[in-house]
TrEMBL record:
It comes from Paracoccus sulfuroxidans. The chain holds residues 496 to 792 of 792 of the full protein. It comes from the Bacteria. This is DNA ligase (ATP).
Amino acid sequence: EDKPAIEVTREDPPKARIKLTHPERIYWPDEQVTKEELANYYTRVWPQIASFIVNRPLALLRCPDGIDGPRFFQKHPWKGINSSIDQPKDKGEALIAISGLDGLIALVQSAALEIHPWGATFEDLERPDMIIMDLDPGEGASWDQIVAAATEVRQRLTDAGLTAFVKTSGGKGLHVVSPLKPHAKWPEVKAFTKAMAMAMESDAPDLYVATITKSKRKGKVLIDYLRNQRGATAVAAYSTRARPGAAVSTPVEWEALSQIGPASYTVRSDLPEPWDGFRKAARPLTFRPSSRRKATS
Ligand code: ATP
Ligand code: MN
Ligand code: MN
């Protein structure tokens, strides 16, 4: 019986077929993180990140000269874009998407240092498959306050029949994320998250604020629900951040929150993987906004 020359097992990590030009280019100067190290990072976390970035519209924060150079937040394909990056259309406009690891490494080649997907896939762009509550500390707000806000958001999501997961932003705050069965459309999901943010503000006006006016945030946590509208994006779980420190937006256990900070994990960390059950936990949102309140945006 002939043995194959190379045995490919299921454990073999996938390999991208993208050629990196200037692999030695430095993206994070303080840490000396290069383009090649970033490609290796994304190859390593591919099994964890894939479902959050494949087949979704993506916005990219591109920094061709690294985090200290010019930066471009892009939602549309550019001239000369790598052919491993897809350009599907939405309402006649070309968007950015990837369908596999080659696409992800092509993003690295394109100096995309942050990946910001929609909370919906191309299977149905009108019905989000996740809710993202973005918790932003106002000036002087403590980490404990952010954690308390996240815990309260979790409770309110649970009360609505949903399951809540949490990740660091890799910046200053936390993101509480709930998987949805794609059912409710964007306006309904936005109304639900807006109602939650407003309720938190009116129940505890000293702790929470639901409107983005900067001056009102001092010492409080902004419950930023505006990630939950058509076309809005939030940084992906396991995406790097184009900020000093080379932090990564990292899924964490709820119980771990008190022992970490928003940028505790970096491209060089051994990253936790507590979201295995994420997709399985998806439930449909069933929310009917109060008819007595006037609908505003
Ligand atoms: P932090 O924890 O520091 O708040 P964050 O990723 O949550 O980190 P935010 O400022 O709260 O940062 O969120 C900004 C959101 O707005 C991002 O999720 C991003 O998808 C979106 N966005 C829209 N336009 C831009 C832009 N020009 N640059 C960066 N982000 C943008
Ligand atoms: Mn935020
Ligand atoms: Mn925000």
